[in-house]
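Handout, section B. The chain below has 183 residues.
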Amino acid sequence: MVTTRHALADSHDCRASAQKRQATFESPYHFVESGLPNVYLVGIDYYVCKKCGKQSADIPFVKDLMAKIARAVVKQETPLDGTEIRFLRKRLGKKSAEFAKIIGVTPEHYSRLESPREDHNPSGSADKLIRVYYSLLSGDETLKDTMNSNIEAYMASLHGEEQTSSFRAQLHDHEWEAEAVLA
């Protein structure tokens, strides 16, 4: 169990002034420590300092929680934003320059992708690549299975139910032409 605590060293001890609360759907705990601005927890105890209003929480199974948040980020239907891209990169333990190289952009371009500005969101293909890369390297078997199913469905949709049985290549005037031959 991880406990996060905030204290103002000069004015007071928040722990001595804390009031215990239960996070509910009506009053969830805002989990800013996740690195994302929009994560709220339900079903945990949290504390609010009566003097300054700062909050802290007892959060059990943090590693599992962070993995489940990452899974939700990858599976969401809306495009990834900068804070979500940064969150996924950090979950993989990659430096930004290393991650930029992996997805095929310059470090400067990648820096813009992690920017919270909406005009710096990744292209559709970069968004998918980030999700696939995270899914394959995160160790999350559920995400791997989902990605494999999505890839198989995509490949099947390219030609409907028809399957390629072979490929034919023919030389024409010093240039090869190749085509798939359906069964």
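Note. Residues 55 and 125 are 39 Å apart (CA to CA). Compare this with the example in section A.
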